[in-house]
């Protein structure tokens, strides 16, 4: 529970599958009730668990490697190597045969971008970071043997920071640094059903959440004394970070007694994010600054498989395709996202009657993106060049029942 941070992959700045088992399945888990991450993906599945108390905790590690080749400079630079830790915690308890409750804590959104301090886009971004933690108490009701509904209340916390060089100075150490934290509320609802012994389906909706940063700080570093009035050493900062909602549908089919197939489709409402505007009203030269621009709603497709090799060993594999919400003309070095096909693999090892260890790995290749600077496009912060990204994610988890 103490390992929460962020990862930076999947469409936009989602942090990807929220457990080791779902990572092994490529994220296809809306109708998958063999993992406590169902609390996050479809709260109705909580009512389908047995009467035991279940706890699941895990650690995620993510490495995102992005390179940039400047159109005019022909200079190749790489983002700084920065493994990103993350984690999750789930707990469930059946109160009666029909009612169950649970708690999930995870990090569904985040990014960490670190470019060299002297790269050609330094006046746009040198470093940018977002951490989020979602806390979701959940309840589910089994309406019949084959159908259940569930809902959870979401309390979200987030912390952001961004640093960029002030482009009017030759000294790259003359920079602005924004930081702040905020919180917001949302909800998560879903339904789960079975049409027989082998086929199940699920539908879930996670609402948008707005993190309101009210007491942030904007600091201007190493500014020449002659310009101190234009750039005060420290001033207030406010912004609203609008995180998207998501509608997901999924199916799970027991092809044989040992083989299970899962499929998910998700539509994420990235269009509400659009851009991030920082209000630094006390700084006369920079009353506002806008980062990014015009996100669009995006789709994702995920297929997973699970094979029970024995009572002690289970294998998983998955494929996924995440559509980017960012159009070519709005690519930003803050997060140079692209369409991402991915493959994953995982396994579970039963350590005893009550404990299971889960391991998984996922590789995603981000389609090459070329950014072009259009002088007439006011408010779009980018630099001309080509981005290429690969993402590696590994996870380790433990599940315990009593």
UniProtKB/TrEMBL annotation:
Keywords from the named record: Cell outer membrane, Membrane, Signal, Transmembrane, Transmembrane beta strand
Which Pfam families does this UniProt record tie to the protein?
A: Toluene_X
Q: Does the keyword Zinc apply?
A: no
Please name the SUPFAM superfamilies in this protein's record.
Porins
- List the subcellular locations: Cell outer membrane
Q: Which Gene3D superfamilies match?
A: Outer membrane protein transport protein (OMPP1/FadL/TodX)
Cross-referenced InterPro entries? OMPP1/FadL/TodX (IPR005017)
Membrane topology term: Multi-pass membrane protein
Family membership: Belongs to the OmpP1/FadL family.
PANTHER family, per database record: OUTER MEMBRANE PROTEIN NMB0088-RELATED (PTHR35093:SF8)
Q: What is this protein called?
A: Outer membrane protein transport protein
Q: Which organism's genome codes for this protein? A: Hymenobacter fastidiosus
């Amino acid at each position: 529970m103490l390992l929460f941070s962020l990862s930076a992959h999947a469409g936009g700045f989602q942090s990807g599958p929220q457990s080791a088992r779902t990572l092994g399945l490529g994220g296809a888990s809306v109708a998958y009730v063999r993992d406590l991450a169902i609390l996050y993906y479809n709260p109705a599945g909580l009512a389908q668990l047995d009467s035991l108390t279940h706890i699941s905790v895990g650690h995620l590690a993510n490495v995102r490697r992005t390179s940039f080749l400047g159109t005019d400079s022909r200079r190749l630079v790489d983002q700084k190597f920065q493994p990103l830790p993350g984690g999750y915690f789930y707990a469930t308890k059946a109160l009666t045969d029909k009612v169950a409750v649970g708690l999930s804590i995870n990090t569904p959104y985040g990014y960490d971008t670190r470019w060299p301090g002297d790269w050609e886009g330094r006046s746009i971004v040198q470093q940018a970071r977002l951490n989020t933690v979602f806390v979701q108490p959940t309840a589910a009701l089994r309406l019949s043997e084959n159908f259940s509904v569930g809902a959870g209340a979401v309390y979200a916390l987030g912390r952001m920071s961004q640093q960029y060089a002030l482009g009017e100075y030759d000294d790259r150490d003359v920079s602005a640094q924004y930081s702040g934290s905020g919180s917001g509320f949302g909800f998560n609802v879903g339904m789960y059903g079975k049409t027989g012994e082998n086929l199940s389906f699920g539908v879930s909706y996670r609402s948008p959440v707005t993190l309101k940063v009210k007491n942030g700080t904007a600091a201007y570093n190493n500014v020449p004394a002659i310009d101190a009035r234009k750039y005060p050493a420290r001033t207030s900062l406010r912004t609203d970070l609008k995180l998207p909602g998501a509608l997901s549908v999924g199916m799970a089919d027991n092809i044989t007694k040992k083989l299970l197939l899962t499929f998910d489709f998700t539509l994420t409402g990235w269009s509400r994010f659009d851009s991030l505007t920082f209000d630094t009203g006390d700084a006369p030269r920079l009353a506002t600054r806008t980062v990014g621009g015009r996100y669009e709603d995006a789709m994702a497709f995920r297929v997973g498989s699970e094979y029970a090799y024995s009572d002690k060993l289970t294998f998983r594999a998955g494929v996924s395709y995440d559509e980017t919400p960012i159009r070519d003309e709005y690519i930003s070095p803050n997060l140079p996202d692209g369409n991402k096909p991915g493959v994953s693999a995982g396994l579970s090892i039963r350590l005893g009657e009550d404990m299971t260890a889960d391991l998984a790995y996922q590789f995603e290749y981000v389609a090459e993106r070329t950014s072009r600077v259009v002088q007439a496009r006011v408010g779009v912060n980018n630099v001309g060049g080509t981005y290429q990204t690969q993402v590696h994610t590994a996870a380790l988890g433990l599940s315990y029942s009593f």
